[in-house]
């Protein structure tokens, strides 16, 4: 067997993530690796933290980039906050909500599940009714942007309801951060996690997370230790704070953090609200073109994510054949359906650097061609 360097093709990533990474972010990755306790690197980590506070719109001190993907961010929120005697309400309207439920079950806590319709936002009235029936509930968890369906839930309203019942909130913002309105402090979110590879358009493998003061109090007053050593935020925080003085916890992914720094810098330069607006404008353009092709959206208009567009595959069209054609002929990736939508829908991402007019024009033209040839 002979081996050679792996040189990937230049794809256009319009699936559910990872999204296209800009040349600036890719070149940041190739900068010289320095020690993760080098004072210059520590200074850059401080900037990553404050840029993340900007992206999340929070002044939470415990805001950092976890050295692991979004799934670890999810797990970090659950294992740090929840103990087996807690009751947790999970609003589940897609694949990622079901992973939240799985986390609660594995901790051994009591799960109260609100099963919503896939392709719809979480229903605030069901949350209110459930909390009324479960005064013992301590936490409410939901996915802001459900990537498996393309539905956007009203995080502000859901947090308001949770607060009325004195519950802390755990919010999945993997696909929402940088792509649509998200205001951690104003909405009173207590624990939130995201991913580097969606609307931040960075390389995969990092999870931005943030915990409110109330959440930190819960962590401090735990009666049993956090079962995961690696995800124990009281230890990780010693690594991410300390004003220039760091306690070794693990070796940070140095170059990936250069990339995250660069990606957050471009978000700051563009301005958060401008980025949200751009995603919406690009969605409107794509939605118009998809309608002209006769493709129907899964999610009602007022509950749709701009950054993840889920459309039904027309009858008689071979899902895999179409996606393979787009990849082979156009170097264009769109996403397959996930969970209940496997084989039934496509997921077209407009995330971060990928949310651009030229990508939309190419995607629509390529889809038009392939739909005409395969039907
Ligand atoms: N939550 C949501 C909403 C996601 O879309 C994803 C990934 O697509 C995850 C969690 C898990 O993130 P990762 O794949 O980075 O572990």
Helix content: 40-55%
Low-confidence stretches are none
The topology string of helices and strands comes to EHHEHEHEHEEEHEHEEHHHHEHEEH
Strand neighbour order, sheet with most strands: 2-10-9-8-5-3-4
Beta strand count? 13
Say which molecules are bound, naming each kind only once: pyridoxal-5'-phosphate
Q: Count up the domains.
A: 2
Terminal CA distance reads 42 Å
Anisotropy-based shape: globular
Q: Name the CATH class of the largest domain.
A: Alpha Beta
- CA-based gyration radius: 21 Å
- What is the CATH homology-level superfamily of the largest domain? Type I PLP-dependent aspartate aminotransferase-like (Major domain)
Mean pLDDT: 96
Polypeptide structure, described:
With 375 residues, this protein is α/β, with parallel strands linked by helices. It folds into 2 domains: 12-17 and 271-374, Aspartate Aminotransferase, domain 1; 23-268, 3-Layer(aba) Sandwich (Aspartate Aminotransferase, domain 2). It has 13 helices and 13 strands. The strands form 3 sheets. Strands 2-10-9-8-5-3-4 form a 7-stranded mixed beta sheet, sandwiched between helices. α2 crosses α10, α5 runs parallel beside α6 (155-164) and α11 runs parallel beside α13 (357-374). The model has no long low-confidence stretch (mean pLDDT 96). The structure holds pyridoxal-5'-phosphate. Pyridoxal-5'-phosphate binds next to α3. Pyridoxal-5'-phosphate (PLP) binds next to α3.
């Amino acid at each position: 067997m002979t081996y050679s360097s792996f040189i990937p093709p230049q794809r256009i990533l319009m699936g559910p993530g990872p999204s296209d990474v800009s040349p600036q972010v890719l070149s940041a990755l190739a900068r010289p690796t320095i020690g993760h306790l080098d004072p210059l690197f520590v200074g850059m980590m401080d900037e990553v933290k404050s840029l993340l506070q900007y992206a999340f719109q929070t002044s939470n001190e415990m805001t950092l980039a976890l050295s692991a993907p979004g799934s670890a961010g999810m797990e970090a929120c659950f294992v740090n906050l929840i103990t087996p005697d807690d009751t947790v309400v999970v609003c589940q309207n897609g694949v990622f909500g079901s992973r939240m439920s799985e986390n609660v079950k594995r901790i051994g806590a009591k799960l109260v599940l609100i099963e919503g319709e896939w392709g719809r936002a979480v229903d605030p009235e069901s949350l209110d009714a459930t909390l009324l029936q479960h005064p013992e509930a301590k936490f409410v968890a939901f996915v802001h942007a459900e990537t498996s369906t393309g539905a956007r839930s009203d995080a502000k309203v859901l947090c308001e309801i949770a607060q009325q019942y004195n519950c802390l909130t755990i919010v999945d913002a993997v696909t929402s951060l940088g792509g649509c309105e998200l205001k951690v402090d104003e909405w009173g979110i207590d624990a939130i996690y995201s991913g580097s590879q969606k609307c931040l358009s960075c390389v995969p493998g990092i999870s931005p997370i943030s915990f409110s003061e109330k959440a930190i109090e819960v962590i401090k007053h735990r009666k049993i230790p956090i079962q995961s050593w690696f995800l124990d935020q009281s230890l990780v925080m010693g690594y991410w704070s300390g004003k220039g003085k760091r306690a070794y916890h693990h070796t940070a992914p140095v170059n990936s953090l250069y990339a995250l720094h660069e990606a957050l810098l471009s978000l700051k330069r563009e301005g958060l609200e401008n980025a949200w607006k751009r995603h919406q404008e690009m969605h409107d353009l794509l939605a118009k073109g998809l309608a002209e092709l006769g493709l129907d959206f899964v999610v009602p208009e007022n509950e749709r994510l701009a950054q993840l567009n889920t459309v039904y595959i027309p009858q008689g069209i071979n899902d895999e054949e179409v996606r393979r054609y787009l990849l082979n002929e156009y170097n264009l990736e769109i996403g397959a359906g996930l969970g209940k939508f496997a084989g039934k829908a496509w997921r077209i991402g407009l995330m971060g650097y990928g949310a651009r007019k030229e990508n939309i024009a190419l995607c629509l033209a390529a889809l038009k061609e392939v739909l005409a040839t395969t039907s």
